[in-house]
Design goal:
heterodimer; A: mainly beta; 5-stranded antiparallel beta sheet; 3-stranded antiparallel beta sheet; 2 helices; 8 strands; 10% helix; B: alpha/beta; Peroxisomal Thiolase, Chain A, domain 1; two-stranded antiparallel ribbon; 11 strands; 19% strand; globular
Chain lengths: 178, 387
């Protein structure tokens, strides 16, 4: 057992090992690589939203009771807990609510050219209602919260009904006014 | 409801990789808690296991895998889980087992082995993102915190060096903790500001490490507690709250769900003015900015004021309102659910006067611990008081 010290916890049981110990077979271990696939049906709201993206449109859903225009759209409102009311076509412009400049890929591997990522509130939706996406045609120095941006779409033939039908958001020409 | 006391705690060393299995780690932490309480397995009425996503350990429904190590065999046993919130939610569940009267003595064990997952636990974190809107963008979990941190910094005009100060304080506090993974008595603000950029504004030393580890606590009814101690530490209030999953529709600059959970716990504890009535806190600090964010969410200061109090030294171990005297997740390590060791075991040890080198010098009476999880939406809070 580990050395006894004053106070609690009075000792610290457990055996520290390093990655090197594993690579060099200094400790015994076993290994497993799961192979599993999933498919998700997209449901009512997302099917319509992604079909809209395929047509180059950003669609929202209204909740009259809460006076909200919801993006991403949903068929029920999480606050008043009633059904939402109608589909509404929004602009493909918006404002950067927050962002990050990422030097990590999705496996936490380091990348040299950073990814610009953030949340865009979409014009015509309620304040701070929008989704996450990439930014492009701007430098790490230019990007800022409050920046006005516009969607850059894939060509119609390349769209597949996915969030990636928008390639990224670029600076909106004509300044910062909403 | 019955009054509930804590009579024993334990935790293993926290480290990026430990040789022991999750079951063995659970056993080691549980044994320590039993020893401190002066009881054995047969005295335990019921067991609660807290452990975060199965994908880290790589064992689906891992509560079942861990139960023998957690003294659960042959007893009423349940695993609870709400992501990073589990480290305080599991002791809340232990509290209600006793408060409800169904158990006199409940054991809570929290376990995590993130080191099992390759190439990195981040790979498993990919699977918590929404599969329709988020995953096609190949996100990394650090993005979430980078975006929240940026929103918080921008809204309140906070400098990075005032956030880095938290990492320095906690890694220095961890020097007195025998289980600590990243204690560093010489770390400086410059070290944090010069560390590798991960996802701006998050740098390497802004983040707590992935870890293996386990912790345990024993909860006891008022009727039985005098058999074990003359100076019980009481659980005075608990609270939990979760915000909408639609995180891109929320203002990330203030964690309102933390405030909701804190109000619930303070009301139960009869606390009307938390800034005056709470002596110290263990806010959840997987990132340095989160300690500040959570101080504000816990209503221990005004919005945007936490960095100023930190700069003024108020949150140091010998300050007026010590934060993370354990060394927190930043200094001791972040085996997700097992951080009960810093967030609740530490409150207990501090209030019982058992914290050794980490003991707060001002004789604290009341402490609050908090955890945070899911997609920036879950808060779990507990208030402890010396009897």
């Amino acid at each position: 057992m580990a050395e006894k010290i004053e106070g609690s916890p009075g000792y610290a049981p457990g055996t520290r090992v390093s990655t090197k110990d594993i690579v060099e077979n200094k400790i015994t271990y076993t290994w497993w690589e799961p192979e599993v696939q999933y498919s998700w049906s997209l449901g009512q709201a997302m099917s319509k939203f992604l079909t809209g993206l395929k047509k180059g449109k950003i669609l929202g859903r209204t909740c009259i009771k809460c006076d909200r225009v919801l993006v991403p759209p949903r068929m029920f409102c999480e606050y008043c807990y009633g059904p939402t009311d109608a589909w509404i076509e929004l602009k493909d412009t918006g404002t950067i609510e927050t962002y990050s400049i990422s030097y990590l890929d999705s496996d936490a591997r380091r990348i040299k050219k950073p990814i610009l990522i953030g949340v865009i509130s979409i014009d015509g939706a309620s304040p701070q209602h929008g989704f996450m996406h990439y930014f492009g045609e701007m430098s790490e120095k230019d990007i800022h919260i409050g920046m006005r941006v516009k969607a850059v779409w894939k060509s119609p033939k390349d769209r597949e009904g996915a969030i990636t039908d928008i390639k990224y958001f670029k600076p909106l020409e004509g300044g910062e006014k909403k | 409801m019955n009054d509930v006391a804590i009579i024993g705690g334990g935790m293993t060393v926290f480290q990026r990789r430990l040789k022991e299995t999750g079951k063995e780690l659970s056993y080691l932490a549980t044994k320590m808690a039993l020893e401190e309480a002066g009881i054995t397995k047969k005295d335990i009425d019921m067991v609660v296991m807290g452990s975060a996503p199965d994908a880290f350990d790589g064992i689906h429904q891992k509560g079942e895998n861990l139960l023998d190590g957690a003294a659960g065999a042959g007893k009423p046993y349940v695993r609870v889980f709400n992501g990073g919130g589990t480290g305080v939610f599991a002791p809340i569940a232990g509290w209600w087992h006793v408060a409800s009267g169904v158990a006199d003595i409940a054991l809570v064990v929290c376990e995590e082995k993130m080191g099992n997952c390759y190439p990195h636990p981040q790979t498993a974190f990919r699977h918590i993102w929404d599969p329709i809107l988020d995953r096609p963008l190949s996100p990394n979990l650090v993005w979430l915190f980078a975006m929240e941190m940026n929103r918080y910094m921008t809204k309140y005009n906070i400098k990075k060096e005032d956030i880095a100060r938290v990492a320095v304080k906690n890694k220095r506090n961890a020097v007195g903790h025998p289980c600590a993974q990243l204690p560093d008595e010489n770390i400086t603000i410059e070290d944090v500001l010069n560390s590798e950029m991960m996802a701006w504004p998050v740098q390497r030393l802004d983040i707590s490490p992935p870890s293996d580890g386990a912790s345990a606590l024993i909860f006891c009814s008022k009727d039985k507690v005098r058999q074990f101690t003359d100076d019980p530490v009481w659980v005075d209030g608990v609270g939990w709250n979760i915000d909408s999953t639609m995180w891109t529709n929320r203002d990330l600059s203030f964690p309102r769900y933390v405030a909701n959970a804190a109000r619930m716990a303070y009301k139960m504890a009869g606390i009307h003015n938390p800034r005056k009535e709470i002596d110290f806190a263990e806010p959840y600090d997987p990132f340095d900015y989160k300690e500040l964010h959570h101080m504000e969410g816990l209503l221990l200061c005004n919005k945007g004021e936490a960095p100023i109090l930190t700069r003024e030294g108020v949150t140091e171990r010998d300050g007026n309102m010590p934060m993370c005297p354990s060394g927190g997740l930043l200094g001791v390590g972040n085996p997700i659910a097992a951080t009960m060791g810093q967030k609740i075991c530490e409150l207990y040890w501090q209030l019982a006067g058992k914290a050794g080198k980490r003991q707060i010098p001002t004789d604290p009476m009341v402490g609050v611990g908090q955890a945070w999880g899911d997609i920036m939406q879950m808060a779990t809070v507990a208030v402890l008081r010396r009897g």
